[in-house]
Design goal:
eight-stranded antiparallel β-sheet; alpha+beta; single chain; 159 residues
Length: 159
């Protein structure tokens, strides 16, 4: 019986991004390791940004869709994670989405517990709460915000 419970638990643990994995991103190689091991697939390269999505739905007219995107800028070694935080149908009918198990919320809760608040950083008109994380292998700060129903986690390289 114990083996059955362990087998049932493994899939839930192995398919989600973690704070620890995020802290390990310090190069394009570590970024690719992070996304590939978490089931993301390559989507495109725009300018210097390399984009991966989770369960991408291809759409040549409106652009590809995914509930989770991860991008890495190869020019200046910064990264961006974008997570959908709810259903548009829920929003339309006024239902409150439980985000307690959403990867964005899980990672952000760890950042708030384990890192030290730095300051608000405005990036392209959006204010991010930023933190310095002593456990990180990247140089700089990590910031997060919810914008247009999406949870954004962005790396801000050392200034």
């Amino acid at each position: 019986m114990k083996k059955l419970l362990l087998i049932l638990f493994i899939p839930f643990v192995s398919f989600s991004q973690t704070y620890e994995e995020l802290m390990s991103i310090n190069s394009i190689d570590m970024f690719k390791k992070f996304v590939i091991e978490n089931g993301y697939e390559y989507d495109s390269t725009d300018d210097d940004w390399i984009n991966y999505g989770f369960n991408i739905v291809k759409d040549s007219i409106e652009g590809n869709k995914s509930s989770k995107w991860m991008s890495y800028n190869s020019k200046d070694d910064r990264f961006l994670l974008v997570f959908s935080r709810g259903s548009k149908i829920d929003d339309l009918i006024g239902l409150k989405t439980d985000n307690s198990k959403n990867p964005y919320d899980l990672i952000v809760n760890n950042i708030k517990q384990k890192c030290k608040y730095y300051k608000i950083i405005n990036y392209e008109g959006t204010d991010y709460v930023s933190y310095g994380c002593s456990e990180s292998s990247y140089k700089g700060k990590i910031g997060f915000v919810i914008s247009e129903g999406k949870g954004l986690i962005r790396h801000f390289p050392k200034e």
